[in-house]
Amino acid sequence: MTDTPPNKRGKPKPSLRQKVRAKVARKIKARRKTAPGIWSDLGMMGQLGWSVTIPTILGAALGHWLDRHYSGKHAWTLALLVAGLAVGCFNAWHWVVKEEKEIQDEQEDYDE
């Protein structure tokens, strides 16, 4: 048993030696890791943008095709454009949540 009281997660608090080792390991890893450049950031924005744009365009194209071939009293173009936009936004949200989770997992690895 340890003399230190447990923290919120029920694990014992790390000793000073463990804290220092973790901090040194973080610094060493940070020095080895190169900072992402402007091209990486632009690529990420492009990927996020296309994940919204493609479903929106596909929805509008399908709606336009339906309107031309099966004309009726309802216009499909606007409805499917909005549906495509919703699907695209969901894709982007899902991607951002996944990236955030990876960053948090990496930070937790540093803290332990």
H/E topology pattern: HHH
Structural class by SSE content: mainly alpha
Distance between the termini: 19 Å
Apparent shape: elongated
Low-confidence stretches: none
Average pLDDT works out at: 82
SS strand fraction:
under 5%
Gyration radius from CA atoms, angstroms: 24 Å
Number of domains: 1
Q: Helical residue percent?
A: over 70%
Task: Pick out its properties.
112 residues, mainly alpha, 76% helix, elongated
Structure description:
The chain has 112 residues and is mainly alpha-helical. 76% of the residues lie in helices and 0% in strands. It contains three helices and no strands. Helix 2 packs antiparallel against helix 3. The chain is elongated. The two termini are 19 Å apart. The mean pLDDT is 82.
Short description:
The protein has 112 residues and is mainly α. It has helices at 16-32, 38-69, 76-111.
Task: Note the topology.
Layout: H1 16-32, H2 38-69, H3 76-111
Helix pairs in contact: 2-3
